[in-house]
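User: Can you help me understand a structure? I only have the sequence.
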Amino acid sequence: MFRLHDRTRRHLHLVLFVLVCVLPTAALVGWAAWTGSPWYVAGHADRLGWRLGVQVVLAGLRHPRPGLTVYEGLELRDPVTGRPMLRCAQLEARWQLDVDFAKQRRRFLVLKTPGVEVFAGERSEWWGLLDRLLGCRLGWADACVQLDAGEVVLAGEPALPKLAGVQGRFESLARGTWAGLAFPSEASAGRLATVCFSRDRQAPAAGLHVQIDTGEGAVPCALLALGWSELGACGPQARFAGTIEADHTAGAWDGQVAGHFSAVDLDGLITQRFPWTLRGKAQVFLDRARIRRSRLQQAAGWVVVTQGGAISRTLLESAAQHLGMALPSQISAEPLQPFEQLGFWFAIDEGQLRIQGRCPLDRADGTSVVLGRHGPLLVASEPKPLPLAQVARLIASTGGTELPLSAETAWLMDRVAVLPESQAVATRPQAAPLR
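Assistant: Let's start by predicting it. Here is the structure, written out as tokens:
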């Protein structure tokens, strides 16, 4: 053992102190100062915004422990208009191991927040973000993400309730990508309502597949209107319980709907769109509905109003004239007729419409479509098939043989297949050959 001079020993101790204590402490203090600086937070927000394709604003960023990142004051904005898309006071992000749908153990990015505010008015940007996510154009080709949100508030939509206990998941597998949300539906403590989006990479046309299942309860139609705007006309109290499955390819929708619509506002659905008055809260029991190329191709179900309402006499007369129904002679001359019940069974198939009266309180022959206080106001006894063009003539209130054109009939023909599918394909104009 050799001896060191006291001065040399002091120098060695000083060097060790600097290496073991001073430098690590300085590095830790410098790293903490840098990660807490506005330049680091702004840079992190820019990188995140570049990946998502939106503008990201961060108020703060913390790393409490390795593998855990806490975002504070997170906000997503439209990159063009600068309008907010999402606000979140605090979001925790961490990595953990979990099993994916292919039964393989993978790393999942777990996102947890006590509450988030979503601006549903920016629908085009949200659809664009979903398309980039399912198309793996966010730089996360093999990412798996889990979301746990204590509360989701849809800003700017007062008719929509807050969604509590929202769970989300995204997976990128060999066959394709899948994203889904689950949340408790109204008046149900059982199976959660689910909304799923997927894209199959191996399909010839990799379109968007959507599945909606309300579970054991119902969801507001205003919530479904965020993706299907026509349901917004059903009113703020309208609810849907059932399933929706649809595919979006080549700019059009194909799908099926089955379920029960409740508290449908006929005033907003009919009176504000067509030249008649029809008031009441309806229930629609939809056995099946098939949509082809964004138009209703087939449907069958039952419509009933049990709590009374009012209907214009002109609508009763037009239905009797164009839909083959019967108008009783004892009906009054008042322009607005109050009724006790409205009910009918309907079926749409191959451009044909069949209607039969089914008011629950009709004790006579069960063929009343509209039932007043003193008897039937409109009767449809036999469900004879009628061309859907008759409905367009009813809307236009004309008895001509030609199909009338107006804003109302154009709205109908844009959403319902008036011609049979085979005839529609045969009459579709062919594109001119390329020169």
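Now, to help you interpret it: The radius of gyration is 31 Å. Residues 58 and 74 are 5 Å apart (CA to CA). Let me know which part you'd like to focus on.
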